Amino acid sequence: MRHDYSILNKFGFKIKPVGVKFLLNRLEGIEVIDRNLPLCETLKEAQERRAFCIDEQHMTCMGPVLLGMRDPDPIFASGHVGAKEGIYEEPRANRRIYQAIPRLGKGTVRYVALACLDDLPFEPDVLVIAAELDQAEVILRAASYSTGRPLTS
Q: E-strand spans in the chain?
C-alpha cells in the first residue's frame, strides 16, 4: 500500500472505517462473498469479517446500477414503484432520482473489494468513516490542509 492509515487508529472510532476499491478484475487472494447482499450492507459485513469482494451476481438492490454493472429496471426508473409505495408523491418525483444519481461508467467495475481498516490489504479508492462531530472536524480539516479545497457535504 502507498499510504499508512495507522494514524486513524488514534481516533478510537466507535464504528470501524472501511476501505472500498472498485475493480475491473478481482484481486488475487481476496475471496468473492458467497451470499447475496445489497451494496449498502457490505460496509457492515466488512466490519465483521476479513476482506472480501462482491460481484454483480451477489449484489442485490441498486448496487449494480450505481456501479455501472447494469441498466436500471425500466419499471423502477419510470418512478411508478416509488409512487405506488407512497415513498414519492407521484412517478415524476421518483423518476427524477434516477436522473440525478451518480453512477460509474458502464462496464468499468466488475468487483468491489471491501475491508475493515485494521485488515486492509489494498489501497482503497474510498475510505468510509463514521465519526463523532469533533473527530469528523479534524479529518475534514486535514483533508483540505494541503489542497485548500473547500469542504462540502
A: 18-23, 37-38, 52-55, 59-60, 111-116, 126-128
